[in-house]
């Protein structure tokens, strides 16, 4: 693991994981220029060890890695400590992207990508985390669903569900307006801080994850529009 610091984002740490050293160092250099402290790893085991040791605020994670792949890295990191993950993939297959989102990644970029866009996505992930932290001590109760915004914990009935940071934020956004239909594009702007028609697939993937963890009846699909929280 390699580490270096910056000044524009005091206390903010990013873990960059890519087995292509040139790409990893280019990404790290751009993020250091943005003021982040950056750790770098080049394989699956090294990435998990670096995440445990450094407790990054964001992970930029390539899918194809030696040791074990980025999907397994994402699973292990999220099981240990929820953290926003931006996945990088050289493959354009939508299935690969949805699998990444399904194991707890928050966003993805397809190679080749713009360093400016990557930096913007990292800042957007951090803004989302900051907004969530600023909400203060609040609890939302909708039917048998209880959401503790301060501790970022969720229960359905007596059972607590373990959600990724983005899954939690998406659920909380829906819960603020129960039974109201929220468009995919609106959710994309509110949660991800960016709008892209292709990005609506990310919304769909995280909705599937929430249904899997909290019950298929929790969120209603309004075809061609978006989703509504229907907990009773």
What keywords describe this structure?
8 helices; 6-stranded mixed beta sheet; alpha/beta; globular; about 45% helix; about 230 residues; 4-stranded antiparallel beta sheet
Describe, in plain words, how this protein is organized in 3D.
This protein is of the alpha/beta class and 232 residues long. The chain is 43% helix and 22% strand. The chain has 8 helices and 13 strands. The strands form 3 sheets. Strands 1-3-2-4-5-6 form a 6-stranded mixed sheet, sandwiched between helices. Helix 2 (44-54) packs parallel to helix 3. The termini are far apart. The mean pLDDT is 84.
**Proportion of β residues?**
15-25%
Order of helices and strands: EEHEHEHEHEHEEEEHEHHEE
Quantity of strands, as a count: 13
Helical run tally: 8
Tell me, briefly, the overall form: globular
Query: Which range best describes the helical content: under 10%, 10-25%, 25-40%, 40-55%, 55-70% or over 70%?
Result: 40-55%
Helices and strands, with pairings:
Elements: E1 2-4, E2 13-17, H1 21-33, E3 37-41, H2 44-54, E4 58-62, H3 70-80, E5 85-89, H4 94-102, E6 107-110, H5 115-134, E7 139-142, E8 145-148, E9 153-156, E10 159-161, H6 165-175, E11 182-183, H7 184-192, H8 200-214, E12 219-222, E13 226-229
Parallel strand pairs: 2-3, 2-4, 4-5, 5-6
Antiparallel strand pairs: 1-3, 7-8, 8-9, 9-10, 11-13, 12-13
Helix pairs in contact: 1-5, 2-3, 4-8, 6-8, 7-8
């Amino acid at each position: 693991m390699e580490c270096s610091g910056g000044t524009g984002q005091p206390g903010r740490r990013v873990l960059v994981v890519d087995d292509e050293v040139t790409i990893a160092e280019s990404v790290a250099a751009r993020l250091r220029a943005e003021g982040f402290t950056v750790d770098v790893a080049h394989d699956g085991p090294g990435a998990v060890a670096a995440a445990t040791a450094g407790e990054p605020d964001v992970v930029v994670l390539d899918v194809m890695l030696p040791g074990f792949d980025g999907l397994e890295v994402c699973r292990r990191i999220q099981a240990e400590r929820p953290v926003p993950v931006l996945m990088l993939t050289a493959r354009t297959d939508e299935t690969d992207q949805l699998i990444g989102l399904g194991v707890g990644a928050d966003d993805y970029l397809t190679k080749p990508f713009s360093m400016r866009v990557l930096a913007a996505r990292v800042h957007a992930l951090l803004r989302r985390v900051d907004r969530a932290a600023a909400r203060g001590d609040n609890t939302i109760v909708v039917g048998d669903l209880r959401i503790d915004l301060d501790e970022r914990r969720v229960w359905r009935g007596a059972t607590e569900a373990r959600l990724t940071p983005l899954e939690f934020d998406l659920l909380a956004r829906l819960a603020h307006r129960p039974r109201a239909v929220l468009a995919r594009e609106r959710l994309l702007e509110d949660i991800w801080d960016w709008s892209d028609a292709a990005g609506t697939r990310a919304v769909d993937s995280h909705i599937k994850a929430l249904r899997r963890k909290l019950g298929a009846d929790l969120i209603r699909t309004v075809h061609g529009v978006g989703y509504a929280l229907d907990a009773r």
